[in-house]
Amino acid sequence: MEKFTYFYRSGSPFSQWYPCRFTVGELHFNSTEQYMMYSKAQLFKDEELGLKILRATTPREQKALGRQVRGFDKTIWEQHCKEIVYQGNWEKFIQNEDLLQALLDTKGTTLVEASPTDRIWGVGLTEEDPRIRRRTTWRGTNWLGEILTNLREEFTLTTI
């Protein structure tokens, strides 16, 4: 029987909103949400908004700015968003040893974002909802959980 590690809200090290510091090239990020929204602006060549996202201090503000990206095309975004989130989380975990250990400690489970409102990155259910215990009754795709589970497996292979 498949075992799950549920997470939700910014207090979880697996959340995109979890406060952490990491650097990519010359750029410093304070969350993977900031990285994701900045990368979204870059993808659609909205330099002005990208700079605003880099200056924004909270994930809430970063997400709101990310929704304003000029030239946004859902089809193009869906072709790139998983790789962007994967890369941002790779950097987050590789540069923060305590967070990497927390991820490695979930070995043997599938990570699941127990967000009742997010049916793309999460499963559209709370941890208390009995439907969350079986993939077949999830209301969402769990893209973030899938990415984190895959990252953990990759880290496990590279750290052996």
From TrEMBL:
InterPro entries membership: NADAR (IPR012816), YbiA-like_sf (IPR037238)
Catalytic activity: 5-amino-6-(5-phospho-D-ribosylamino)uracil + H2O = 5,6-diaminouracil + D-ribose 5-phosphate; 2,5-diamino-6-hydroxy-4-(5-phosphoribosylamino)-pyrimidine + H2O = 2,5,6-triamino-4-hydroxypyrimidine + D-ribose 5-phosphate
Residue intervals of the NADAR domain: 6-155
Pfam families (UniProt xref): NADAR (PF08719)
Protein name per UniProt: GTP cyclohydrolase
Gene source species: Paenibacillus borealis
